Amino acid sequence: MILFINACVRKESRTLPLAEFAAERMGGDVERVDLDSLPLVPFGKDMLEKREADIAAGDYSDAGYDLAKQFRNADAIVIAAPYWDLSFPSALKCYVEHVCVRGLTFEYGSDGMPVSLCRAKKLVYVSTSGGYMMSEDHGFGYVRQVFGAFFGVAEAMLFKAEGLDIFGADVDSISDKCRTEINNKLTVNGEENKMEEHEITIRIRTSGEKCEMTDAEIREWYLKHVGGLFNKEYGTPDIDVTVERKEI
Length: 248
Ligand SMILES: Cc1cc2nc3c(=O)[nH]c(=O)nc-3n(C[C@H](O)[C@H](O)[C@H](O)COP(=O)(O)O)c2cc1C
Known about the structure:
two-stranded antiparallel ribbon, Rossmann fold, binds flavin mononucleotide
């Protein structure tokens, strides 16, 4: 099961469809947690004391542990998180507090280090930002570390689309590039996924008149009229148009 953790908030989120595409590429059943629709609250004094008592009694029957139980059964994790205030929405940190439960998702070894009780070995983190990410450490970097140290998630991948709110930004093409990267780098059911390469030859014969179009114009015409026919669902392919001229 792929656990899809959605930390997006805006209805017209640009992060969410990219992350959904990533989960789809990975294949398999997806269970989704929409953080914005959960009554998540940060851990306060009473909650902490109750949790300590539950852990001491080995009693995880409270519904408050359902998120942690779901988390430990996931085979892979996908996180959709917009870049907020140099990291991610606080609901995601809150979620981490709720799934970090000793005895359920991790245990301490005899050396005092955490030992994972979770199945997931892979994390895919998808984020978009209005400007450029100053450092990945506070967002992706934090999640990768906490998931690695406590939950044994060995492989973490980041897919990002930056600069979306910069005046004049071509949001579609930036998002498309990210989508293409996801498509190329994520495996489907463990299979290596590469876009197939095709060579298509189109001959243009002009009768009488010499072709007045320059090579650059021919390339531009091709990309405008033919390049657009490719299936955009999997991102925009790299199209390399070579023009050869021959008098016949
Ligand atoms: C509360 C909030 C905080 C933000 N903080 C930053 C920031 O620190 N740096 C940045 O480049 N963009 C920032 N942005 C812009 C978002 O990263 C950008 O619009 C992103 O694409 C939003 O993702 P979404 O379309 O999935 O909601 C912020 C946006 C919001 C709403």
